Each structure stands twice: as C-alpha cells, then as structure tokens.
Amino acid sequence: MSRGNILLIDDEDKLRHLLKRIISLEGFIVYEADSLKAGLRQLEKESIEVILCDVRLPDGDGVEFIVKVKLKYPQIEMIMLTAYGNIAAGVQSIKSGAFDYLTKGNDNERIIPLLDRAMEKVRLQKRVTQLEQRIEKKYTFESIIGNSELIRNAVSQAKKVAPTDATVLLLGETGTGKEVFAQAIHHASRRSGKPFVAINVSSFSKELLESELFGHVAGAFTSAVKDKRGLIEEADGGTLFLDEIGEMAFDLQAKLLRVLETSEFLKVGDTKPTKVDVRLMTATNRDLETEVSEGKFREDLFYRLNLFTIELPSLRARKEDIPILADHFLHLYAAKTNGKVSGMNKEFINRLTEHEWKGNIRELKNVIERAVILANNSELTASNLPLDFQALQPRGRTLSAFELASMEKLHIQRVLNHTKGNKMAAAKLLNIGLTTLYRKIEEYQLS
To answer: Which domains are seen in the chain, by residue range?
Structure first.
C-alpha cells in the first residue's frame, strides 16, 4: 500500500533520480518534473499530497512557486530543497508557507521522516475538511427529510427568514425537529461563521438558568469565585437558540426582553451592561397566547418573539414521510451497528405508518435503531418492532371495549411493554404466577 503521492521538482537529473529512488524504496509513489511549468502540469493530472521542490529552477523561483501552489492547492504541503549553506532561502520558504526545507546532499537521512510528518499533516487536514463538510451538510436545509406539503411549506418559510436577523419562533410537539430547523436557519444566514449556541430552558432551575444565560461576576453569590461569560455573550455575533422558552421564569423574561430591545444585559452581580450582537431563535410546544392570557408569559416578550413563526408538523400529520425517514435512519444505523440490514418489509412499514408517534421523529429514530440492532437478516420485519407495535387483537373474536377481559388484556400488554418483554418481571408487577401470565398471553394472542 502506498504511503502517499510525492511530486519531485528539480532540474538536476542525477539528483532527482537519486531522490526518487530513495523515496520510492520507502513505499511512496514519486512523480517527477524538471521545471516549475512541468510541475504545474503534474499537479493538474495527479493527486499530489507533498511536493519536494528546488528553490532555484531555470523557469522561476521556488519560493514564489509556494505561494502559487498554496493558493490553488491549499492542502498540499511543500518541502524546499536548498543549496548548501543557503539558510536564508530555507527560512524564507517557510515564511511563504512551506512545511520545511532540506539542504541538498546533507539531509538525506531527514528526507523520509520529514515526508512522513508532512504526509500526516496533509491527511489530518483532509479529515478536518471532510468533517467540516459533513457538519455543514448535517445542518443545511437538505438534511431535513420529507416530501409532504406540510414539511415543504415549513422549509420554504425557514429559507425565506434565514438571511434576515429576524427573531424566529418555532412551534411544534416534542421531537418534531425544532433544533434541526434552528441550526439550518443559522447556517443559511450571514452569521453562519459565528457560534450557534443552544440551551433547553426547562433543564435548569431559575437561578442556574440566569447564571448560564447572562453570566456572573466574581462574588455575585457564594460559589462565584471568578467572572463567568454567559451563553448570550458566547453567542455574540451568532445565534442563540432557546428551546422550551415557555418554561422560562417570569422575571427572567424581562431580562431577555431587554436583550432584544437594547442589545445589552447585566450579568448577575454586575452594574455595568454588556453589549452583544445576537440573533435570537426560540421554540416551544406550549400555546404561548394562552400562557399570555393566563399571566404566565409576558405579552411584550411574546410579541417580540412572535415576529416570524414557523409551525412544524407532527409526524402523524405527515405519514407519507414516515417510510422515507425510516429508510434514512435504517441506513444510518446499519452503517454503525449492523451492516447487513438493507431494507424493510411491507408489514414493517405498515406498522410504522399506523403508529401514532407521540414522540414524533425522535421516537421513530429510536424505534429504527432498536429494530436494526435486533435484526437477524437483511430485512426488518414486524417482529423487530417494540411490543406496543404488535397487533393487540386475537385472531378469533374481537373483544368489546366494555368487557373486563379487554381491560385486562390492555393492562397486561402495557406491563409487558414497560418490562420490555421480560415476562418474569411482568408477572411480578402483575402479582400473578409466571404460568398464569403465559396462559393470558396465549389467550389474548399477545406478543
């Protein structure tokens, strides 16, 4: 296996051939050029990772060549070859962007270790670039999956508001992808190169949330031994996303309103305001208008947050997207855990589309991950689904909703779901014998 592709540029044939032999014997693929012009032609044809180049060539200066190459091929590393005693040229080459320099004839033992280090840097840069591209793709509107009219309308609205600095309020049930939308809006805005800071308001007590959001100065309270930047300040120049905004304490809402109105705030314990430039996006699954009418949410803040509202549909409202989303998650988790799974049978898909999905996309994601882990063949079947997806009705007589047996059957199924199919644990919770439980399972055709 090749250790990498090297381009060797030198007009001295004997030295070039010698270097090529030394480097090739160590497992590198070496391409040759006797001039800068010939070197540029090789760069256009081959996938070069490191260039070894003479500082002085008949058709140009190697140091100037560094700048030209770096502009067009920024990931390529360059090692310059200098004449004996010409340290100044070597230092200048590094200032111009070269990885390092070698002295001809004196540094042959350094060539291979230096090439290895340069190659390691090239590959690290490539991995970073690939990771950045994956992250960028992850947070674009293209990452929002679905063809239903409801989701297309939501995406269309988000794309329109993204280039502006308008506050955005995302409404929808838990698990509908509100943070995914917020990320996509941020990455499509002029602030995309700045921080995206997200916090779930419901995860903090009032006092802790105030400190997390606004920061504090040393001595503001007992454990405040030094100044701390809050998340609003961390998001300066970028976007702050507050999920579950309806859970925010009433007096903290006033402090947030001040940020929106004046672009400044007071840290806990401070008397001097801090200026910020932050775009605010919020989300909630509550009816904020009702919260306002009941005195639980500030009306003035609501109208500032409600400048541009996007309502995200529940999964059950766009059932035509369920097979597409399921297929996406299937391939995602198959690649991570069980590479042999490649599809879903018709019954599996039918069970998915019939489900209510109270947890929305988040619930679907978890169900598919579990199914992939449990799968024994290349196709997911209904048997890979949780017990509450299984048919509740026996093949014989349909039980009336008013019959005691119907209630017993439903209760047993719920307990089995709770114990994730562990029948011994279910029997203990039901306070019946294990044999009795098996008889009930058979009687009611439970899974």
So the answer is: 5-135 (3.40.50.2300), 146-311 (3.40.50.300), 315-385 (1.10.8.60), 390-447 (1.10.10.60)
Strands 239-243 and 100-103: unpaired
Can you tell me which residue has the tokens 């140091």? 63
pLDDT digits over 143-172, tens only?
899 999 999 999 999 999 999 999 999 999
Among 395, 401, 403, which residue's Cα sits nearest to residue 444?
395
pLDDT in tens, 321-343: 999 999 999 988 888 876 788 89
Q: What is the 3-state secondary structure (H, E, C) of the chain?
A: CCCCEEEEECCCHHHHHHHHHHHHCCCCEEEEECCHHHHHHHHHHCCCCEEEEECEECCEEHHHHHHHHHHHCCCCEEEEEECCCCHHHHHHHHHCCCCEEEECCCCHHHHHHHHHHHHHHHHHHHHHHHHHHHHHHHCCHHHCCCCCHHHHHHHHHHHHHCCCCCCEEEECCCCCCHHHHHHHHHHCCCCCCCCEEEEEHHHCCHHHHHHHHHCECCCCCCCCCCCECCHHHHCCCCEEEEECHHHCCHHHHHHHHHHHHHCEECCECCCCCEECCCEEEEEECCCHHHHHHCCCCCHHHHHHHCCEEEECCCHHHHHHHHHHHHHHHHHHHHHHCCCCCCEECHHHHHHHHHCCCCCHHHHHHHHHHHHHHHCCCCEECHHHCCHHHCCCCCCCCCCCCCCHHHHHHHHHHHHHHHCCCCHHHHHHHHCCCHHHHHHHHHHHCCC
Crossing angle of the two packed helices 360-374 and 322-336, in degrees rounded to 10: 50
Of the chain, the end-to-end C-alpha distance in Å amounts to: 53
Q: Which residues contact 273 (CB under 8 A, 6 or more apart)?
A: 262, 264, 265, 266
Nearest by Cα to 417 from 428, 426, 429: 426
Lookup: tokens for 122:
């090239």
pTM of the predicted protein model: 0.62
What would the two tokens of residue 389 be? Answer: 């997806």
CA distances from 376 to 133, 369, 379, 389 (A): 34, 14, 8, 19
